[in-house]
Protein 1
Amino acid sequence: MRADVLVVGGGLGGVAAALAAARAGRSVVLTEEFDWLGGQLTSQGVPPDEHSWIEQFGATASYRALRNGIRDYYRRHYPLTARSRAWTDLNPGAGFVSRLCHEPRVAVAVLEQLLAPHRGAGRLRVLQPYRPVAAATDGDRVTGVTLAHRDRDDRIEVTAPYVLDATETGELLPLTGTEYVTGFEGQGQTGEPSAPAEAQPMNMQAVSVCFAIDHVDGDHTIDRPAAYEFWRDYKPDFWGDRMLSWRSPHPRTLEIVERSFTPNPDDDPLSVNADQRVNPGDGNLWTFRRIAARRNFVDGAYASDITLVNWPMIDYFESPVIDVPNAAWHLAKARELSYSVLYWLQTEAPRPDGGTGFPGLRLRGDVTGSADGLAQAPYIRESRRIRAEYTVVEQDLSLAVRGERGAVQYPDSVGVGMYRIDLHPSTGGDNYIDVGSCPFEIPLGALIPQRMENLLPAGKNIGTTHITNGSYRLHPVEWNVGEVAGLLADFCLARGESPRAVRNSPQLLAEFTDRITAAGVERRWPRIAGY
């Protein structure tokens, strides 16, 4: 196959990139390894992690269209109560983690709707389920990528003038010989206050295999996992208790805190204040990432709330799953851990009434679209990251460092984002690192590899550090990065210029930023304070 733009990886960044390039009239091939497009929002099962002003500003127009589309889908197709239907900022799950907690299948439907006219017009070909297995290069250019079908012996070679890596782990970087980094950089490299003295490339954030559950009558206990005893007794040094308990470190203070768990509280969905400035929302784990609040729907429509389990106890940090020979084995162990957490919840978890176990908890693989009941794909927080023309460091956005000055303003800003520097426990034995952040910008230099000319990152693989990845890895930023990468590929094709030339030529940069602004990309924040 041949196209103007090849986008490898169909997560949020990949979909945004493909959509931007196709809207510009380019022929696009988009690939995805799993059954659903949407990555962390869908196949990984993670409700959107967003900042406190997301309903007003701080996202691209197309990301806002995605969010509005999700709400409209519920209003058109779901039996909402009249009160919830009239709720302007409808939060279907009334979860505390996000103002838009929802079932992943709805996001899949809306993403497919956005892409549908371009597929119909023949501008967009979606190869699914395919993953990259090889690449060809000529000097500093990628000339082709070989894709293998996940389930059968079938390979496709795709060539394109521009190749965008939107995979969850930066798979194209080693395949193309593109220079990249993993894990912690050292303070000597970055000067970051939260970095270790020396680089630790194999020290990466935990991965998690999420799953959805509800709570109904009957005993829905799964078979006891083979490794259950190991995980039940697993006690990391910094955890304060066994990992399978209600006690764990508070991410911001590292104080050992006890969380509660009350299935199906009879709460009012409209009373939920999903604002991370006010409350992290993880006090009651049931409502933390709830994706369907039964009180949003007419009586009898839902027998139970549905909640998404992405809690501290499912974080797998025994080993990285990038650049290790046994990555598949460790991903299987991460799934084992998630099953063990579910079994513990059903059989041994302490209840408020003094008993143990919640046998009414039911695994909802139908909600996550998987045969084994868990999310289709692991939640990968940290990717390989390009060695970029500009690398974002902690000092650029740390609230403690920048204070009232706010985050660094980049002359080549191509978007905005906001999230605390939020790092989960890592494979090197580190506890949470959680640092206040200023609303920040996305520099174009972080999307430009130091050497390669036609390969662009379109997800979490941009030029951040291990530390700043904690802020730049979330849903709206990944979408913004992908959208800009797609727009940049189109701009370079139209002008016959390279991405590097666009960044380093004031005239070209001005023309490109005008182009993305017209497309609805916000480049600057209004005057607001971080948290």
Note: The chain has 16 helices and 22 strands.
Protein 2
Amino acid sequence: MRTPPVPRPRRAIGPTPASALTLPGARPGTRSLALPIALAVGMAGVLVAVGPTAVARSAEGPAAAVGHSPGGHSPGGHRGDLGRETISPDDGWAAWSGPTFPEGVERQARPTTGGAAATRSEVYEVDTWHELRDALAGREGGSQNDARYNDTPRIVYVTGAIDAFTASDGTPLTCEDFASQVTVEGTGEPFSMDDYIAHYDPAGPWGRADPSGPLEQARDAAARLQAAQTQQHVGSNVTIVGVGDDAQISGANLRVRDAHNVILRNLRFSDGYDCFPQWDPGDGDAGNWNSAYDNVSLWTSTSVWVDHSTFDDGAHPADSLPVVYGRPFEVHDGLLDITHGSDLVTVSYNEFLSHDKTMLIGSSDSRTQDRGQHRVTLHHNYWEDIGQRAPRVRYGDVHAYNNYYRQTGTGSFQYYWGSGRESSLVVENNAVRLARGSDPANVVGAYGGTMLSESGTTLNGRRADLVAAYNATASTPLADEARWAPSDAYRYRLLPTAAVPWVVMARAGTGELRSVLPR
């Protein structure tokens, strides 16, 4: 079971004082690669323009010669103060203005500004889980509903590593701390996942029936205790940013639910760990362990910008999980899932590392109310050694451009781009590097979808048509087309695909932006 590291000393929550010191700039990226001058000059002459060129203004200076600026728009803000930055004009769907209809209710969207309008009394510096929760609730000891429905503009600066498996007094928590609070009916004994596994073994007397009875009820009760501790809602008009290169939130499920106008930047979201995954013997041919938590979940939320962050499984990557009942004992769900009618989202310059089910856009085929929603832009992101869903899309108009997908080994790779029900995914100038032995036809997957528009892809450095590779063996081919054109919604520039690995490796992930506390 998970045992988190010793937490940092607590700091009293409260508004950041005006005299707060400016921290040093971010470290040089450990993976940064300098783009050769000759290559950069050559590529600048072959930029592919799609619509009018977007001008990205940033605290980091003017837009780069190729592609988007890696920063945001900082109207009068302090240089390096990410808390006051807003999304750059035309930076994907999150910069779009117009109507959106989460759950069928109209909401008028504006370009994402997060908490940039926060007053000084609503600016917080936090370095413990308890402080973060209070800041999002807007008051000490606030509830999850306080956090979920709070729409007062707020900026939360995260300094150092925050672990959700930490009690309010700083005591580290383990999975056993939740399980020991639950007594299994009829036994007088505390709940144990070991007992659960022994009881519901499909090779034993229980067989392949769905778990039920006292042990399943106890597992559910223990799971609710964990959720109360490690799941955190985020409301509207909020910016959460990391300061420096070591800001981290681990062990948590950060859930942006029923919210609008949210920015998450310069943070490592790590190991959204489920102590009590549920066994579902009817999930697939062999059954599966299903976890409840994503590192970050967007539910029924609009105008969200996720930028320059790193998502991973921390100390529990997919290849470290044990096998139980012949299936991986999965303690994670997604890294960043965008579901339940969430809309107008830009995901830029992030890293997604060593995870199986990485990004789901659209939660269910049966949610027909999501038609017209799930508009998402993914650009300049780095995906390494993931299994699937980069992304998998239902219903949405999704644009994935200038991303870098890389395998260092075959591992559990299944696919990258998943065309789900009534989706229209446009993928442009993405670089893919597969390990030896991986089939290029598997990069594309179809799960009820009918179309996927692809252009400008390179595979291991060479031009490739991966939709054609998929169609060559598919029983039902995908149309290489889309029902929409990204340039009709916003302006953007494409990097030549040959430059994508260099730029993404140099700029993506946490710690690559200069970030300071406000003066």
Note: The two ends are 42 Å apart (CA to CA).
Protein 3
Amino acid sequence: MSRPSDHIDSRPQTPQAGVVQPKLGLSGWLRWFWRQLTSMRTALFLLLMLAIAAVPGSLVPQRSSDPNGVTQYFADNPDLAPALDKLQAFDVYTSAWFSSIYLLLFISLIGCVIPRTKHHFQALRAKPPTTPARLARLSGFTTRDAPAQTDAATAITHARTLLKSSGYRVARFDSAGESSVSAERGYLRETGNLIFHGALVGVLVTVGFGGGYGFSGQRVLVEGQTFVNTLLAYDSFNPGRFFDDTTLDPYTLSLDDFAVAYEQQNLQAYGQPIDFTADVTVTPKGEGAEPGVVKVNGPLRTNGTSIYLLGNGYAPTITVTAPDGTVVFSDSVPFLPQDANLTSLGIVKVPDGLAEQLGMIGFFYPTQDKAASGANFSSYPDLEYPLLTLNVYTGDLGLDGGVPTSVYALVTDTLTRQTGGATGVASIELKPGESAELPNDLGTVSFVDNAPAASAAGDFTQSVPRFASFDIHHDPTQVWLISFSALVLFGLFTGLLVPRRRVWVKATARADGTVHLEYAGLARGDDPALEAAVTAVADRHLKLLKTHQLAVTTPEST
């Protein structure tokens, strides 16, 4: 048979003749882009991208949580750090590229959830589908013969009751000589999926609001020092875009004691820290003092903020005295740990009171020992044999130009080195309670002992105070975040554990007056328990019919 002359395959196959695709236009391209963005495939891809984009935040320190670590990273990697900073690697979670993925995921999830929710509500209101004509083609197909004197309508009535009591939505269909019931359940599975995605949107919104109206600030406290929760008291402060500093609750936080427990039984892990405990005192405005404890993974929650323990180390108390006896510097200086045994580096700057500005780079060894090369190192992180070494520099410290400088760094390019290195003058070495003369008759420097009586008896454990670095975090959406997270888990487990299935029971009257029963099921997705469920329905239905038949015939026989 020949094709009509106007059939597409009968036309000349030339570039000018053939199927011509319609032009999408601006609205068509926008519709196509929206459908791609709101597809589940895109949402899963964006979730994966978000997880990958978060990885750099765990590889390098972040300004929001560890500003001291960022400073140290710049000092250790002077060439790499500026390049990473341009890529916002130290502010990953507020970077433009991370926020772009975050917002696209947010829009994609909303675009997925709204149409699915509408369709789900329509499906909940719709009755189950008509019973298929050939149940033998479906899963779990099985047959039974109804008890004698049972008609098809009665059999289906009991089947309907049985399925409805088992949590199925049911619909009955009757025709000449045949009755059936269609049942379905498992819509809670789709409800769980929608709750999961809706709660995930809630988490994203909550995190956004929390980041906008919350804040995160860091403060280093030496034992005995007190911090007041005001904006100027923070070492670094990272407010949200909509944060108002007038909402700060001005409580005080005092570090009373910082204790560290070290492993001393297992020689393979000897000296490793096993517990950190910061004993603090919190005094809300206008109220009495309240003791508290901050531990690793055990923050202290007070006055609308959560106080986390970030780091710790030693803060040797150093005093610099002018030749006339005037104390020009005296402070407990936090030294940053450089290794597991807390060999620590610290900077001392004395801009006034001496004939020249003075800078010192110090190394502190909690338990000083010497390597074969003669270099000092710390062999244990606790205070067993503490030693402080200082290299002295003089000249312009660069503090008078109004340019901010880090307290943990000393730029020596324009300074004159007075001790150590090629100067021929040995570095200053001090034990707790000792003093030494500064070069060029500048004065003296002392390493103050906080517990001289105990040190005299050979116990140095209290000779040097410790410092603790705290992260003070305020998130006004914590309750909402926990609630949405719980809903995410509920929706996830519901969507995974609740099976979606349909079951049909058909009763057909035979010519001899008996009734033939057919049972079958259909699952949406994998449901290994479907066949067993259909068989169980058939057995329970037959048992119910026999019980009913016995109840009907027993009075007549009596």
Note: The mean pLDDT is 88.
